[in-house]
Specification:
With about 475 residues, the chain is of the alpha/beta class. It is about 30% helix and about 15% strand. The protein starts with a helix and ends in a 23-residue tail after the last helix.
């Protein structure tokens, strides 16, 4: 019997070794929504400093056999520890892991994995979160004053491009605005205050799509995912209606599109909580495909050589269905031969929104400000763009660093000779972002409470974003 036990243990050890050698290592954990450790390069300096052994240990931890199974079992073990209250409402703390942005490399229609790029949401979702009826919500309504930097950036683009391009702002509220409980109704008011303050800071040259009011009119519908920080296709559709209202175009009814449904998935907020009630309450994906013929190209961060892509990835899982995940730049052409062209500056919230624009524009350029190194003004002028819309989540509309990055799109990727020419152009003078030069919109309603009421700690707002000197953040 003893010999049999030794043989079994020996076989298990050898099977584990063969697994490390033969089976290709996973790059991403779909359960944890994070990149896994890679095997380190063996260097003498890293060995002496102890980094090599630490890196190898991290690799082993991330790639041992049937690891995903044990991760799932750990959730069950944690659940059965201690006393549990029979309650549909609870406050939970986020896991220590941080969701890191990574661009998807798979654009094929055959892609079946959910490789969604996550936004800089950690300021809102790394603290306490509310779990109610298996759905996760941030306990925040935003910081009204923090929107002035984003408004200043949008005002600058509108002023410099006023003769050629209409500038539209379409910002999504947080899902906390629509928590199905009167106890948290105050977060609905805080979300409204934050976005109303943004509207106030915008100049009259900027068209404001009142996304909040359109979503709020449908607050009892499935407009945000329960396990993910994104809105659903239905929520994005109501944002599209707000855009149409601001730009005075007629939205296409959902009934005139093809409705499709996908199986259940668990998103970013489950990865931050691993809460059992959330796991047992997965999201489903319903989306609407306009009856428009489209072609799409995607581009690398600093390249203008397009690679074939698609507007919808019907075999992708979850939110990757829209635009096949995030890419630095995309170009979409349609059979809507009206000569209208739009450029969309977006984070991942914009993905589900962009797909509805194919019914109204012959050409759509999609710029992900987090990754693109393309010069925005070059794209606008060389392609005769008519409209520009900022389609982002509210967490990014409150970040000074994000406003700097978006302003920087106007001057990046420019050679010295081109830079000299542009600086001589009076329509492209530098527009530094500062807190004292916001041009308020006289048509927006504002109160002192909106300006002074901070509903979250300012230190938690996108503190990891790139910070640039104001002199470098101009148009």
């Amino acid at each position: 019997m003893h010999k049999v036990s030794v043989v079994v243990i020996f076989i298990i050890l050898w099977a584990g070794l063969v697994n490390y050698i033969v089976v290709p290592a996973q790059e991403v954990s779909l359960e944890e929504k994070r990149s896994l450790a890679v095997f380190p390069q063996i260097q003498w300096d890293s060995y002496i400093q102890g980094h090599l052994t630490d890196s190898i240990a991290d690799y082993i931890d991330d790639h041992f056999p049937v690891r995903e199974l044990f991760v799932g079992m750990l959730d069950e073990i944690n659940y059965y520890k201690g006393l549990h209250l029979n309650s549909d409402e609870k406050i939970v703390k986020s896991l220590t892991q941080t969701i890191s942005p990574t661009m998807s490399e798979d654009t094929s229609e055959e892609a079946t994995q959910d490789s969604t790029v996550y936004d800089n949401i950690n300021g809102y979702f790394q603290n306490d979160m509310l779990v109610i009826n298996g759905a996760v919500f941030p306990i925040s309504g935003g910081t009204p004053r923090a929107t002035r930097y984003f408004a200043k950036m949008a005002n600058g683009y509108a002023r410099k491009l006023s003769e050629q391009v209409r500038v539209i702002v379409a910002v999504s509220p947080l899902s906390s605005a629509f928590i199905p409980s009167d106890k948290y109704r105050y977060l609905n008011r805080h979300n409204r205050q934050t976005l109303d303050t943004l509207h106030h800071y915008l100049s009259s040259d900027v068209l404001y799509a009142n996304v909040f009011e359109h979503l709020n009119a449908h607050s009892t519908e499935y407009i945000f995912f329960k396990t993910d920080h994104h809105w659903t296709a239905l929520g994005a559709y109501y944002a599209y209606q707000a855009f149409c209202e601001a730009t005075q175009i007629k939205p296409v009814p959902k009934a005139n599109m093809e409705k499709r449904t996908k199986s259940h998935f668990l998103g970013s907020l489950y990865s931050l909580t691993h809460d059992r009630s959330v796991k047992n309450n997965p999201d489903m994906l319903e989306y609407y495909v306009p009856h428009v013929t489209t072609k799409a190209l995607r581009y690398e961060p600093n390249s203008y050589e397009g690679v074939r892509s698609t507007v919808f990835c019907h075999k992708c899982k979850g939110y990757d269905t829209f635009l096949c995940a995030d890419f630095p730049l995309m170009k979409i052409t349609t059979d809507v031969k009206n000569g209208k062209k739009i450029i969309v500056i977006k984070d991942s919230m914009g993905n589900a929104f962009v797909v509805y624009l194919v019914s109204h524009y012959e050409e759509i350029w999609v710029v992900d400000f987090r990754y693109s190194q393309h010069n925005l003004l070059r794209l606008i002028r060389e392609n005769n763009i008519n409209d520009m819309v900022f389609a982002v989540g509210m967490y990014n509309a409150q970040s000074y660093g994000v406003a700097q990055m978006m302003s920087g799109l106007a001057t990046q990727e420019i050679s010295t000779s081109q830079q000299d020419t542009i600086l001589k152009d009076t329509t492209l003078n530098t527009m530094p972002i500062d807190s004292n030069s916001v041009s308020p919109n006289p048509n927006a309603t504002i109160t002192n409470e909106m300006i002074t009421n901070d509903t979250i700690n300012k230190n938690t707002i996108n503190k990891n974003t790139v910070r640039l000197d104001s002199a470098d953040a101009g148009l």
